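Notebook entry, structure prediction.
Reason for the run: the old model in the group folder had no record of what sequence produced it. Starting over properly, with the input documented here first.
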Amino acid sequence: MNTKAEKALVCAQAVDCSFCEEAGVDEETMFRIAEGFGLGMGMTDMCGAMSGGLMDIGMENSVGKLTKADTYKNTREYAAKFKKKNNTCDCSELKGVGSGAPIVSWDQCILDAVAFTRISGSEVMEENV
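New structure, fully documented this time:
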């Protein structure tokens, strides 16, 4: 398991802090940015781990020019991979809120989100998921 996830971070922090070096952001800043995105943005909506990956894709893609179309393309591809693997992007469904039957563990959400995040220079490979 990624050592960042073992530090009791929320899911979005565990994903985002895995890419601090590649994103050029210090861990404390990334920790603070991502805090509100855990637990499905605090509302068990979109998976926080997935939200963290989306933030990392934006950090990588946005280079001071008109990059929105490419960023949106990358985020749609990312979301499709996550959803294909886990059948949903919804935190409450992933965690089994209401049903008592989680689809995937917290650790696996982090691993999937990190693996599907494409960051230049990152050694994370999708095949490892």
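Summary: The helical segments are 11-16, 20-23, 27-34, 38-44, 48-61, 68-86, 91-95, 106-116.
The old model has been moved to the deprecated folder.
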